[in-house]
Design brief:
The chain is mainly α. The chain has twelve helices and no strands. The protein is globular and about 50 Å long.
Length: 299
């Protein structure tokens, strides 16, 4: 779903920052409605067009912001380019899983994955960076793990979609912190790295007559729009996060999975079931514990 610049804990909340961030999360919350219209198109083709049409949008924004020199430096620095390849690979995997989840009737699992993701990021910090966690944070992680166990036992299968989204986005956010460029430049770097494979795949589909682009007016417009629905929320979030406190971002980030959850249940009519009726309240409780820990840390 987002770019992940690290906001300063001591910064204040600006109205512009709130506007940017809330707009980004609301757009991500409505994104399943857009992706559902692409259900008849293979996820790989959708991801390819998300990459291709994000490039001109991100490029125009970088030119407007006057940050193209940073991008040129990143493209000519081997270490930065290598790290960009890592984050680009992770975000492309995350996009592919997300598109497949929405278009194949697994939007509830997508919501679950993005509810768990912040807790997974906290766990990564503890394991990989040796960060000390507060008791409330350990409690939140344990409760989320118990919810996954409930889904596995009661549902009869591991929630692979949710866990795949959590892990791919969690590691993307982790490695993104080490990418020595700004969030807007970082996103442009990633889509430029992915551009050649995306164009190659598009050319293959065109050559085999399997492409949906140019087939019908609706399909063509929807695929063209993939760039806007990908790049615009990311750019909005990147600019909002710089103007908000960490505690504010911690709260706002749950707007999107909550909207995805509501869309899945009330618009997509996905079955809720006993396992989810038990697991989701557990997840919401773990989220409450996590947010409480964030507020305590802030104070």
């Amino acid at each position: 779903m987002t770019d992940t610049p690290a906001p300063r804990a001591d910064s204040g909340d600006s109205p512009a920052g709130l506007g940017f961030a809330i707009s980004a999360y609301v757009l991500w919350g409505f994104l399943p409605l857009y992706m559902k219209l692409l259900s008849h198109i293979p996820p790989a083709e959708v991801v390819a067009h998300r990459v291709v049409w994000s490039v001109p949008i991100a490029g125009v924004i970088l030119v407007f912001l006057g940050r193209t020199s940073d991008l040129r430096t990143a493209l000519t620095t081997p270490r930065t380019l290598a790290m960009g390849c890592v984050t680009a690979a992770l975000i492309s995997v995350n996009w592919a899983i997300y598109v497949w989840a929405i278009t194949s009737g697994h939007a509830l699992e997508a919501a679950l994955g993005y509810y768990i993701n912040p807790l997974f990021s906290v766990l990564l910090g503890a394991v990989l960076l040796k960060e000390r966690l507060a008791p409330l944070q350990w409690g939140a992680i344990a409760l989320a793990a118990a919810a996954v166990l409930v889904l596995t036992v009661q549902g009869g299968k591991v929630p692979y979609v949710a866990l795949s989204l959590t892990v791919s986005w969690g590691f993307y956010a982790f490695f993104k912190k080490w990418l020595p460029v700004g969030p807007n430049q970082g996103f442009m770097l990633e889509v430029l790295i992915l551009l050649l494979p995306a164009l190659g795949y598009w050319a293959y589909l065109t050559g085999t007559g399997a492409t949906h682009f140019g087939g019908t007016t609706q399909d063509t417009l929807l695929l063209l729009g993939c760039g806007a629905v990908t790049a615009i929320p990311l750019m909005l979030y990147a600019n909002g996060a710089k103007r908000l406190r960490l505690t504010t971002i911690a709260i706002l980030q749950y707007i999107a999975p909550t909207m995805i959850f509501l869309v899945a249940v009330f618009l997509f009519d996905e079955p809720f079931g006993t396992a989810r009726a038990i697991a989701f309240p557990m997840i919401w409780t773990s989220v409450a514990l996590y947010l409480l820990s964030v507020f305590r840390t802030r104070r």
